[in-house]
Amino acid sequence: MAILKIVRYPDPLLKKRSLEVGKITDETVHLIQDMVETLYAAPGVGLAAPQVAVLQRILVLDVDYENPGKNLLKLVNPEIRHAEGEVVWEEGCLSVVDFTVETKRAARVQVVALDEKENEITIAAEGLLSVALQHEIDHLDGKLIIDRVSRLKRDLYTRRIKKAARSGKPEPERPGLMI
Ligand code: NI
């Protein structure tokens, strides 16, 4: 197992669409293990493969931070089958440091995916899990929370992170919820 480097905005990899996984191999299982370790080390509640520079449709999520591992989800080729209702959530992202934005999401989703053994699983989610699933599936389609704000705000943010990188200052503490 290994902790992988998390790709950050404005890396162009984050804008790409990830490809369906054709066959789950030992390599896929190994990647998923590394993603789980990276998720807990971050720490975050969700991580998509493109965030570790692998353009494949794979996610790991664990929104139950009081019982790590108990409700861990490892999803391959996830797809939203149904979505209903509306909820506004303040989201952060492991790939967009020092930034949060209120996003409008479906309140409830049903997601179909494969597990590590290529069995189809269905997840009915609401609350944080519903939001996190939609956020992570956006990553697989090359969409980021930073794309949800105006160009002006995005430019200001980009300038701010570049300046911070140049100054060599340590990164600010991350706010609570990193998806
Ligand atoms: Ni994210």
What is the average of the pLDDT values?
93
CATH topology type: Peptide Deformylase
* Shape, principal axes of CA atoms: globular
User: C-alpha Rg, in Å?
Assistant: 16 Å
Uncertain runs are none
* Total strand segments: 7
Strand content: 25-35%
Structural features, described:
Helices cover 26% and strands 28% of the residues. The strands form two sheets. Strands 1-2-3-6-7 form a five-stranded antiparallel beta sheet. The protein has a two-stranded antiparallel sheet with strand order 4-5. It is of the alpha+beta class and 179 residues long. The chain has helices at 26-41, 127-140, 151-167, and strands at 46-48, 58-61, 73-84, 87-93, 96-105, 108-114, 120-126. It has one domain (12-167): Peptide deformylase (Peptide Deformylase), CATH 3.90.45. It binds nickel (II) ion. Nickel (II) ion is lined by residues 93-95, 135, 139, 179.
In short:
With 179 residues, the protein is an alpha+beta fold.
List the SSEs and their pairings:
Elements: H1 26-41, E1 46-48, E2 58-61, E3 73-84, E4 87-93, E5 96-105, E6 108-114, E7 120-126, H2 127-140, H3 151-167
The protein binds nickel (II) ion.
Residues 93-95, 135, 139, 179 line the site of nickel (II) ion.
Keywords summarizing the entry:
globular; Peptide Deformylase; binds nickel (II) ion; 3 helices; 179 residues; 26% helix
